[in-house]
Write a structure and sequence with these properties.
Blueprint lengths: L4 E5 L3 H13 L3 E5 L2 H10 L4 E5 L7 H9 L9 E5 L4 H9 L4 E4 L4 H13 L12 E3 L2 E4 L4 E4 L2 E3 L3 H11 L6 E2 H9 L7 H15 L6 E4 L3 E4 L4
Helix pairs in contact: 2-3, 6-7, 6-8
Length: about 230
């Protein structure tokens, strides 16, 4: 069985070496980059199974790297685990809005980092959800093969994660899904992600739906649902 490859993007050599050592010890192949531009080029050249991305990078910062990778269909499905030295909500929220899958704050324990990586790579798409199938609900059409969302016939730009969450909700109008169920459907069971990540994506979806933001209903204390027609 081929080794899973982790791309570690970190400009501090001592931290990079430490992460590489622990991931290699766990049986992963590790590719590295010390700046954002080099990381983007490397990922496009040979896509890894996961990107471990520091946000504070020289030149092209981590958020811009995330934006570029998640906006291209060839790399949008690669899980991105953000690493930040600043426990600032603005950084975390910005990364999640761009489509990053999770985050971890420095300083962190290597066991925790390895556990997050392992959980992300272990995820499986649920069999009952065909992510290649076009979904139509009310006046919204989701065409995942072309990474397109159309509202009343007009294209609406969404990130990879936003499209997936909207697809899951719109495929089951009227069904209430908990945050955990949404995470499981979109990214696979056992994925270490916070409730806030789902909430951030929902905010982004509603903003982009504009006048149709109320199609996504909050069920207090439970989760979210796509409002049925009528």
């Amino acid at each position: 069985m081929a080794k899973r490859t982790i791309m570690v993007v970190e400009d501090e050599e001592d931290i990079l070496d430490l992460i590489r050592h622990h991931l290699t010890k766990e049986g992963y192949a590790v590719a590295t980059a010390t700046d954002g531009l080099a990381a983007v080029r490397a990922v496009f050249r040979k896509p890894p199974d996961l990107v471990l991305l520091d946000l504070m990078l020289p030149g092209l910062d981590g958020l811009e790297v995330c934006r570029k990778l998640k906006s291209d269909p060839k790399t949008a499905g690669i899980p991105i685990l953000m690493v930040t030295a600043k426990d600032e909500e603005s950084d975390v929220v910005a990364g999640l809005e761009l489509g990053a899958d999770d985050y971890i704050v420095k300083p962190f324990r290597m066991k925790e980092l390895v556990a997050r990586v392992r959980a992300a790579l272990r995820r499986q798409r649920p069999a009952e959800m065909d992510f290649g199938k076009t979904v139509r609900a009310r006046d919204i059409e989701i065409i995942p093969g072309r990474h397109e969302v159309r509202v009343a016939g007009e294209p609406v730009d969404m990130t990879f994660s936003e499209l997936r969450i909207l697809q899951v909700l719109a495929s089951r109008p009227g069904w209430v899904l908990t945050r955990d169920q949404i995470v499981d459907a979109v990214r696979g069971a056992d994925y270490a992600v916070t409730d806030r990540a789902v909430d951030v994506q929902i905010v982004g979806i509603r903003r982009k739906l504009g006048e149709r933001a109320d199609y996504i209903e909050t069920v207090r204390g439970v989760g979210y649902r796509f409002r049925e027609d009528g």
